[in-house]
Automatic annotation (TrEMBL):
<protein>
    <submittedName>
        <fullName>GNAT family N-acetyltransferase</fullName>
    </submittedName>
</protein>
<dbReference type="GO" id="GO:0016874">
    <property type="term" value="F:ligase activity"/>
</dbReference>
<dbReference type="GO" id="GO:0005524">
    <property type="term" value="F:ATP binding"/>
</dbReference>
<keyword id="KW-0436">Ligase</keyword>
<dbReference type="InterPro" id="IPR016102">
    <property type="entry name" value="Succinyl-CoA_synth-like"/>
</dbReference>
<dbReference type="Pfam" id="PF13607">
    <property type="entry name" value="Succ_CoA_lig"/>
</dbReference>
<keyword id="KW-0547">Nucleotide-binding</keyword>
<keyword id="KW-0067">ATP-binding</keyword>
<dbReference type="InterPro" id="IPR051538">
    <property type="entry name" value="Acyl-CoA_Synth/Transferase"/>
</dbReference>
<feature type="domain" description="Succinyl-CoA synthetase-like flavodoxin">
    <location>
        <begin position="2"/>
        <end position="39"/>
    </location>
</feature>
<dbReference type="InterPro" id="IPR032875">
    <property type="entry name" value="Succ_CoA_lig_flav_dom"/>
</dbReference>
Length: 93
């Protein structure tokens, strides 16, 4: 007998196959439900850039790390968008 994980093969090969198929890989139930919510939205994301808006530095850094792992680019907000956010955020932000 063998553990089923031992016969699967390389995780990198599996990732490549999923990426080629256009699949979204998740590693937890929370990620699965977040992916379902995003993918069922009326508007689908376009391109390889993503802006990160967070209520703290730690979560933003973690999100940027995942962004990098996924081969995506960190987007820069336009000046009008950044100014509009500034008016809605705490002065401590």
């Amino acid at each position: 007998l063998t553990h089923s994980g031992a016969i699967v093969g390389s995780d990198a090969i599996f990732d490549a196959a999923l990426q080629r198929a256009g699949a979204v890989r998740v590693r937890s139930m929370v990620q699965m439900f977040a992916a379902i919510k995003c993918l069922s939205a009326r508007y689908l994301p376009v391109g390889r850039r993503l802006a990160i808006i967070s209520n703290g530095g730690g979560p933003a850094v973690l999100a940027a790390d995942v962004l990098n792992e996924l081969g995506l680019q960190l987007a820069t907000l336009s000046t009008p968008d950044a100014e509009q956010l500034t008016t809605r955020l705490s002065p401590l932000a």
